[in-house]
Every structure is written in structure tokens, then in C-alpha cells.
Design a protein that fits this description.
This protein has 423 residues and is mainly alpha-helical. It has a single domain (3-193, 206-422), classed as Growth Hormone, Chain: A (Up-down Bundle). Helix content is 85%, strand content 0%. The chain is built from 14 helices and no strands. It has helices at residues 3-7, 14-45, 48-75, 78-102, 107-131, 141-170, 172-192, 206-219, 221-237, 244-251, 255-278, 286-306, 310-337, 341-422. The radius of gyration is 21 Å and the shape is globular.
């Protein structure tokens, strides 16, 4: 088997292949809108605090709703949950287009629409991630998750780059229209696709089901440690993205086009990281790689905080994107591999809470700190905190690997028992 065949082995599953390609169009549209919206906010307000506030309000619902989204994904058909969220995202995009071209849009409209989209995304991310196992075989799950993450970050390269060109030439409105169009193919696909049967336990009470997910995650040290690391990196690490318009305009003097290029560089690194994960055959040893990347991530982010060279900043952001992909997607894959199918949605809901839910709190904190200390010192503080979090995780790796091995052995034994019972 060639390297290319190994990386793309999940594509042999027809439904996953279609799911992958229709998603990438949707994600490109999303990144185009996000970049244009960020630039529009900066143009309207010129305030780092308001940039942080919009990121906060857009991501805060994940902190509240992601556990509920996990419950929904485990107790209802994940495809139907995802279909509903995509329709809601389409509605939000249409409203944004109407407000922009009517000439009445202001920062409070954007703030309100960010909350609306944040609620939809809380359910969307969990349903999207937990739907993947219903399109591929168990052996190809790691590959499919890594490819999905690579696809998301490929869109993260293309979207901001396209947005930067369009904003400079035609304004933000065209970007918002393209996002509306991008939702149509994935919605049609979800209407038509037939996925594998989902394991759904008989519904007793939402409280019992939510508690079951929390208890499972908390009692399993590898899952608990990964969730805590993701939360720290999301809060203190990736929140620097909130300040990217300021770095692009005031520090690197590159304007809207520069913003698209810088975000594209981060996405390029993330795609490379995703392909690296896709080439791996299993999850053994992934925690050590996550630990190394956590430390490297924080070092490169610290250097970026004081860089005044556009080329150096591009290189550092590429490494930051690579490392964050390994931390994020590697943790996601490890947690899914350690979770039974009937609990997978709730575990991914907790992952989404830490990944997306910590980001708004971090964005607000970073925006507030930047007002008082400036963007350089603020990002330097954040990277230092991430460094110590990565160091703590690194020293736990041997114990985490042993416990993960034990959990996988128990899970495999239980699956064999279930298969024998069915026979």
C-alpha cells in the first residue's frame, strides 16, 4: 500500500467520500464569512475588546449547550440533528446578507447573529464528529477523523485567502453570499444519504444520560487529562486568533490580504498535521506526540507574539497550526477510540465544551488584556500558560498510555462478548 493509499483509505467508503467533499464546500464558505465578519467588525469599531466580545458571544453557547448536544447525538439520529443545524446556519447566513446589503448592519446585529450561530454550532460540531463512525468501518475511524480535520483546515487555508482577495476588491458582502451558497450541497446530501444503524439506548431521563457521560469521562484518566489539556490550549492558546486583525493591520502592516494569508498559513500547518495523523495506523503513542506538540505550540506562539516580520510570522503560524491540529484531532481520535458507541456523542459533547466552550472565555479575556497590556504582552502571557500546561501533560504520558491500553483491552473484550451474544 502506497503512502497516498494509506492516507486516503477512508475514501473507499462511498458515503464518507461524499460527506467529506460536500463538507469542504460548506467549511470554505464558513471561513470566508468568519474572515469577512472579523474584518467588518474591526472596520466598524476598531476595538480589540469588541473583537473579543463577538468571539465570546459566538462561542459561549458551546460551553452551555455542548453537553446537551452530546445527549441529543446519542439519543436521536445524528444525521437528523446535523441536518437541522445546517438549516439553521443557512438561515443565519441569509439574515447576515440581507442586513449587510440593506445598509443597516451594525455591531449589535453581528453580536446577535453570532449568538444564534453559536447555538447551532454547539449541536453541529458534536453531531458532525459523532456521525463519522456511521460512515466508515472501525479500522478506518482514525483515518476518517484525521481526514475530516485536514479538510476543515484546508478550508481554513482557502476560505481566508479567498476572503482577503474579495474584501479588498468587492467588500464583505460577496463573502457573505458565498457562504449562503456553500450550505446547499451538504443539506441535500444529508437529506438523501443512508448511514449505518446507530446504537441508541432506551431513553430514561436527560439528567441520567448527561450524568452517565460526565461520570464516564471523569473516571477515565486518559479522557479526563485530554479534556483538560484541550480546555487550556483553547482558552489560552487559540484565543490569539481574536487579535489577528490587529496583528495584521497594526503590527505587520499587511491589511485584509495579510489577514487572509496569515490565517491561511495556520490552516496550511493544520492540514499537514491532519495528513500526518491520517497516515497513522492506530492511536498508540499519540499522547506523547500530543505532549510534544503542546510544548512546541506554546514556544512558537510566544515567538509570534513579538515578531514584526511578516515572513517569520507566516512560518510560526504554520507550526502553530500543525501543533494545534495534532493536539485537537489527536485528542478527539483518542477519546473516540476509548468510548463505546452509545456514549460517543456525550464524550464528544464534552470535548466540544472544552474545545469550543473555553474559546469564548479566552477570547473575552484576551480582548480585555490586550486593551491594557497590548497584543504582544497578552499573547506572550497566554503562550507561557500553555507551555506549563503542556509540560504537566508530558509528565503524565507514561501513566496515561498504560491506562489507555487497559481501557482499549476492556473495550475490545466487551465488544467480543456483544458479538458472540448476537451470534
Amino acid at each position: 500500500m502506497t503512502l497516498l493509499d494509506n492516507i486516503s483509505r477512508a475514501f473507499k467508503h462511498k458515503n464518507y467520500r461524499h460527506y467529506f467533499f460536500w463538507q469542504i464546500l460548506s467549511f470554505i464558505g464558513t471561513w470566508i464569512q468568519m474572515t469577512a465578519q472579523s474584518w467588518l467588525i474591526y472596520r466598524l469599531t476598531g476595538s480589540p475588546f469588541f473583537l473579543g466580545l463577538v468571539s465570546f458571544t459566538g462561542s459561549l453557547p458551546a460551553l452551555i449547550f455542548s453537553p446537551i448536544a452530546g445527549f441529543a447525538s446519542d439519543n436521536f439520529k445524528r444525521k437528523n440533528v446535523l441536518l437541522c443545524t445546517q438549516v439553521l446556519c443557512l438561515v443565519q447566513a441569509i439574515i447576515l446578507v440581507v442586513l449587510f446589503y440593506s445598509g443597516i448592519i451594525n455591531k449589535w446585529h453581528i453580536l446577535t447573529l453570532s449568538v444564534f450561530l453559536g447555538i447551532a454550532n454547539s449541536f453541529d460540531v458534536t453531531a458532525r464528529q459523532s456521525l463519522i463512525p456511521l460512515f466508515v468501518s472501525k479500522d478506518d475511524l482514525l483515518n476518517a477523523i484525521a481526514l475530516n480535520s485536514s479538510m476543515f483546515n484546508a478550508a481554513r487555508i482557502a476560505g481566508p485567502a479567498i476572503a482577503g482577495i474579495l474584501i479588498a476588491g468587492y467588500g464583505e458582502g460577496v463573502c457573505f453570499i458565498l457562504n449562503v451558497v456553500s450550505y446547499v450541497p451538504i443539506i441535500i446530501f444529508l437529506f438523501m444519504v443512508k448511514e449505518k444503524k446507530q446504537e441508541i439506548k432506551k431513553l430514561t431521563s436527560p439528567y441520567v444520560h448527561l450524568k452517565e457521560g460526565f461520570v464516564f469521562a471523569w473516571k477515565n484518566m486518559p479522557i479526563r487529562s485530554l479534556l483538560l489539556l484541550i480546555g487550556m490550549v483553547s482558552f489560552w492558546g487559540m484565543s490569539f486568533n481574536t487579535l489577528m486583525p490587529i496583528f495584521s493591520d497594526k503590527v505587520l502592516h499587511s491589511g485584509a490580504k495579510g489577514l487572509g494569508i496569515l490565517m491561511g498559513c495556520s490552516g496550511t500547518g493544520a492540514v499537514i498535521g491532519g495528513l500526518f495523523l491520517a497516515s497513522r495506523q492506530n492511536v498508540y503513542g499519540i499522547k506523547k506526540i500530543i505532549a510534544y506538540c503542546s510544548i512546541l505550540f506554546s514556544i512558537c506562539l510566544f515567538l509570534f507574539s513579538f515578531s514584526e516580520s511578516f515572513l517569520l510570522s507566516m512560518l510560526l503560524l504554520c507550526i502553530v497550526g500543525f501543533c494545534f491540529m495534532i493536539i485537537n484531532s489527536g485528542s478527539n481520535t483518542a477519546m473516540q477510540s476509548l468510548s463505546p458507541d452509545y456514549l460517543r456523542g456525550r464524550v464528544i459533547g464534552l470535548y466540544s465544551t472544552m474545545f469550543m466552550g473555553m474559546f469564548p472565555l479566552g477570547s473575552l479575556t484576551v480582548g480585555y488584556l490586550a486593551n491594557y497590556f497590548g497584543v504582544h504582552v497578552t499573547v506572550a502571557i497566554c503562550s507561557t500558560i500553555c507551555f506549563f500546561a503542556g509540560l504537566c501533560f508530558y509528565f503524565k504520558v507514561p501513566e496515561l498510555e498504560k491506562k489507555s491500553h487497559d481501557m482499549l483491552a476492556i473495550k475490545t473484550f466487551e465488544e467480543c462478548k456483544m458479538q458472540n451474544a448476537e451470534l
